[in-house]
Amino acid sequence: MRGKRRAPRPRIPWRSPWTPLACLAGALATGAIAVLGGLAKDVVLIVDGERQEVRSFAASVRELLADQGVPLDAGDLVRPGEQAPLADGVRIEVRRARPLTLTVDGHTSRRVVTATTVHDALAELDLATVDGSLSTPRYEPVPLSGMELTFYTRRRVVIVAEGSRREVSTTGRTVRQVLRSAGVDVGPGRQVSPPPRTFPEDGAVITVLPPRTLPVQQAVMGLDWDALARCLSGGDPAAYNPGGPYYGLYQFSLPMWQLVGGAGLPNAWPAEEQTYRAQLLYQRFAGRWEGQWPSCGAHLFG
Questions:
Q1: How do residues 219-278 score in pLDDT, each as one tens digit?
Q2: Sign of the alpha-carbon torsion through 68, 70, 71, 74
Q3: For residue 46, which of 93, 116, 95 has the smallest C-alpha distance?
Q4: What distances in angstroms separate CA 102 from CA 117, 137, 140, 199, one per listed residue?
Q5: Cα–Cα 20 to 30 A to 250, which of 205, 220, 267, 284?
Q6: ∠ CA 155-159-163 to the nearest 5 degrees?
Q7: Sign, CA torsion 169/175/176/177
Q8: Reduced DSSP (H G I as helix, E B as strand, rest coil) percent helix, strand, coil of the chain, to 5
Q9: 0.70 cut: is pTM over it?
């Protein structure tokens, strides 16, 4: 009796003539992936403070920035430099240049910074530790288009007014602002030196003279007041003689100083004010100088 026919055996895939080619192709692809993976670098890119992680096959920092669409202009800061080779794990920082119109104590200059905030811009300009007032808050960003920044440093000035002399700290832009902040009255007729609109430099002496309501005769102004002052006080406006006491260039006693409208102490005032009051005193006594300056009065006449 005849037996049943056996079913044909299934073909074994790896016995296919294409199997070696498929295996070779797979091996090559795997090797290529491994090689390319070894060439890729993972880097950190920070542009104007914004951070991103990037995988790149670029050979240099310049190529990476070009691939990422980061343009560079003159003045931009790149660390490490554009020509540096790109290494795995490197941190690349780009800060783009920003134009700044900087005015410090009234002097304006054009500067370029790469800082992204006003605070950092001041640090870049060596002004971060300088005390003063700013036109813009320090936390404000500096836009790429640039900005104007006005900075007034803190200064110390001396105010001579109302018969007293005092030193004040100020960031005022003008003499007028300094006096207003100090509560000094600058009413009609008062003479201010330097002029109210000028900038008060560090160490400046600001003088506010009281109104001069009484005129001085031309003949009295023509006398030799410098010679009298040299004889009485050595020409020192701050002179003080405790024997009287007597004060200033012309050795005023307080009653005589007040008689001609003087305020405070005579030697607190500049020479100009002391001379004006001395001339008024001369006029008040109709030229009888002997009672006021018995030892030196003759010097008025050379």
A1: 999 999 999 999 999 999 999 999 989 999 999 999 999 999 998 899 999 999 999 999
A2: negative
A3: 93
A4: 14, 14, 15, 17
A5: 205
A6: 165
A7: negative
A8: 30, 25, 45
A9: no
